[in-house]
Design brief:
Helix content is 41%, strand content 21%. With 232 residues, it is an alpha/beta fold. It has a five-stranded parallel beta sheet with strand order 2-1-3-4-5, with helices on both faces. A three-stranded antiparallel beta sheet has the order 6-7-8, with helices on one face. The two termini are 30 Å apart.
Length: 232
């Protein structure tokens, strides 16, 4: 059962949101400020955080960035009254996986939450796939949305997984920035591509931290290439 942390300081928004998620079958915890949210994420990381930006103590963007910097790799959905394109771009740059502008319908939020959990946590029929203990290289289980270096699983956010999966499918070939933005974010995306660079940077760090031979190489002015050992 997925665990969801709701970070929202307005009771009239938080209460129906919590009830809706509980009816969906999730275990839900609600906190009203950013400090408590970071404490909870550290103590018992949830599968998904639904995060308001206008918190009374810490801006939600800082909560998002701090959580990612501390190693949280679950799903983060920002919900906010800041509906401008710039705010959406900044939110994704800070490590969010999805962005929902207030006011929003609860049915839409439910659908987005289900999709986000499937992408980032492997809540799907194939989610229980096990790694091959005899495989020492980088292995991507696309059905379960899991990545392994030998027997060690590498925890990736939804966007990091999708970028890596596309690069792996085109191993040793350059994948353009435009294709990655269109396939991983939105074909109608017209915002800053800095969010791609941020995602690539985090992905490189995670691959390097477990010592895999594969490298994500930037091809100046074109895109990125995954090179190294072959995928299983």
């Amino acid at each position: 059962m997925a665990r969801v942390l709701v970070v929202e300081d307005e009771e009239d928004i938080a209460f129906p949101l919590v009830r809706t998620l509980e009816r969906e079958g999730y275990t839900v915890q609600w906190v009203e400020n950013g400090g408590d949210a970071l404490d909870q994420i550290k103590a018992e990381p949830p599968n998904m955080v639904i995060l308001d930006l206008g918190l009374p103590d810490i801006d939600g963007l800082e909560v998002c960035r701090s959580a990612r910097d501390a190693g949280y790799d679950g799903a983060i959905m920002i919900v906010t009254a800041r509906a401008g394109e710039l705010d959406r771009v900044v939110g994704l740059d800070y490590g969010a996986d999805d962005y929902l502008a207030k006011p929003f319908g609860l049915a839409e939020l439910q659908a987005r939450a289900r999709a986000l959990l499937r992408r980032t946590n492997g809540y799907a029929a194939a989610a229980e796939a096990d790694p091959d203990p005899d495989d020492d290289g980088l292995r991507i289980d696309r059905g379960a949305r899991r990545v392994f270096a030998g027997q060690q699983e590498i925890s990736l956010t939804g966007k990091e997984f999708e970028v890596l999966a596309i690069l792996a499918e085109n191993r040793d070939k350059v994948v353009s920035r435009g294709r990655l933005m269109a396939d991983v974010w939105d074909e109608n995306w017209y915002g800053s591509t800095k969010t791609l660079d941020v995602t690539i940077g985090r992905l490189r760090q995670k691959l390097e931290s477990v010592g895999v031979g594969e490298r994500v190489v930037a091809v100046r002015g074109v895109g990125f290439r995954l090179e190294g050992a072959t995928d299983a």
